[in-house]
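Box S2. Input/output pair 1.
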Amino acid sequence: MPATQKRAPTKLDNTQTGLIEIRQLDLVFFDIRVLANGIMKTKQILNSILAVLFVFPLMGTFAQQAPNSGSIEVITSFDYPGTGNSTLPQKINERGDVVGVFVSSGVTRAFVRFSDGSFSAPIVDPNDTAGFTEGRGINNSRTVNGDYVGSDGNLHGFVLSSGTFTDYNIPGATNTTLLSINDSGDFTGDFSDSSLIFQAWFSVGGTITSFSVPGALSTFAYERSTQLVVGYYIDSSGIPHGYFRDTSGALHFPIDPSGSTATILFGLNVRNWVVGRYADSSGVTHGLFFVPPNSFFTFDYPGSTFTSLNGINAQGIICGRYIDASGTHGFLARVTGTPPTREAGTEMKAFDSRPLVTPLDPSPSAWGGAMPAR
């Protein structure tokens, strides 16, 4: 079946309300002006990519809880058709189409879940020789981008439009991933060479801007609006932290609730509502809804100890995943009401743009099990 052809819906919609906490958190930021000059490069580690980041510990110390001014409600859950598939949604467009990844028997394939609930056939890049093709971004024309592993054992970006695959690689890079695409055909992602340091990048009208959080082992750019780029970086201890980059080129980091040992930001919409995930010290992973500069929702899928929010559109529809005893499942949810936007703390600033000099720890544990995370 062609990748653009739909499969029939396999699950009826159901609506339920998950546990939501609205908290104002005291945060400390560093503001760094980073210019796009040069290419920092690293090497692909395939066995690290094949793992999935599941646990982000967070200590339970929070500032005073804010009044309930909004909520996140589950619309439906879904699984890619078949037996034993793990379903990992990645991004959602304004039509309600979701791009994602499903994993079955160690093989990774991309998919699209269309807004009517039907699914595409598995999306496999024709140059994939390792059983690894990821769908990471989708725009309103249903153009999909992502990455695959080729015969050289490295990651390469691809764009799929009207049934045609086109390779996309940063010049001189060993590995290239594409993590989002907008209606103008602009991308975000990361690239590397044998130096084992990944660098974030985004394109506007074909012009590539690269950047890294100073002192980080690697930096990943997951999505861009007209005002912000969001993603995460790995610090010198191998811990992930969120960041955002504003229109002036300033990087704001770390984006961590108090006591967090890891935070990842995956997506944002035109309102600059940001989604991601974190976990507490007991190993329970929570969905994260972030309103810059420092306001948060936390959301748990009902009955699950792992929730990840991966994409959000302008209507406030979120795609994500949860884990239960039967496996890993996708879901859609909606933001209702008005999110909290009151600033919780004073931002600290430092203008330190030292180069990345710390050697990368290539072990899967240092990356939280995935590179970059899904």
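Box S3. Input/output pair 2.
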Amino acid sequence: MVANLDGKYLVMKKNILDASVSTLQFRKLLFFIIVALVSTLMTPASFSSTQIANKSYSTSINGLWFKPSFNSIENTAVRKEVFFNYLLPAVIEKNIEITKLRELIINDKLDALELEELAIKYRLNLPITKEDLLIAIDVLPPSLVLAQAANESNWGRSRFAEDFNNYFGIWCFVKGCGIVPTKRDMNAKHEVATFDSLKDCVDYYVLTLNRNYAYQNLRAIRKSQRDNLSPVTGIALAEGLKGYAEIGEEYVNVIQAVIKFNNLERHDL
């Protein structure tokens, strides 16, 4: 009789424990879904154009830069959505900044000294023309930026993204400029750049694509799209990224696949 009661007790205890585990898993999943939903609701699409222009949404997201712990999000779909919604405001804000600068250039609102400073910043030859500046100073489609960030940072889970806000695998070449990779070749000199914030990282990444010689073809593709009055798309500009990684054309295919699989061009509209 006692043995029978003990057996029933053990079965009951196991059922209670199983129910507790299931409840805990459900709560965790529910939490991440809520985070994703809140993140979705707080993207710039949720704000008016006036709020975006005045950056009044920044204190909610960009100003404090609430940073999710992507490594702790087990559900892949939820992790992706949280990742995109974390980066997207910074990308949109940067594109707004560039658009305003382009308007100043087009409308001749900058003096000679300001134009010369821009030419130096974007590594353009002097004397500078308006067309030269507009080729270099232009927006990047969010789809392209998000796809590269996802690929280079392993969806925000890399050590360099998590600890140093480097979402694009950006290197620097001055001793002490960043973090030495643990698997760096003995004769290599590069370090992985560190940034104080996501905004700083996005700023540098955009500047890199807009001025480095390796991405001259990307800028030419973008100019061609503008000349043809076509939308500037991430799929098209990805063709200019062969110099971003050693694998060249394969890298282009990877970025384009990320854009297509995750329907990222919906953010380019």
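Caption for Box S3: The chain has one domain: 42-268. The domain at 42-268 is CATH 1.10.530.10 (Lysozyme).
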